[in-house]
Amino acid sequence: MTKRDVVFPPGRQALYERNRYSPAIRSNGFLFVSGQVGSREDGSPEPELEAQVRLAFDNLNAVLAAAGCTFDDVVDVTVFIVDPESKFDTIWKLVPPYWGKAPHPTLTGIGVTWLYGFDFEIKVIAKLPETRELPA
Fold it and tell me: Signal sequence span per UniProt (predicted)?
């Protein structure tokens, strides 16, 4: 078995070790990032929805930065939302500052009934900068 090339953001390694998963894995020129939620440093959910979404993006950006990436390197996004019918508009109005300019990454949105006390989770795949194709 190939050894996993794990990426840990600063200050959160204990949280990932306690929950027994890797925040991100580098493989074949890509970075596969585990779902990020609006958790505080102790792992507890941020109770207010807008603050929780911002914190989820902040946590995501910390993982990306630890791998030398930014959201501009993201090629695929999956979001999970508890009760998207009532929360989608609130969540999506917060996205533009994090999302950047077009062309945007691909997106899959999934409505779920439970996220371990959270209302929003985002997972991504990013192309690592050292393997980015040069413009023609």
Answer: none
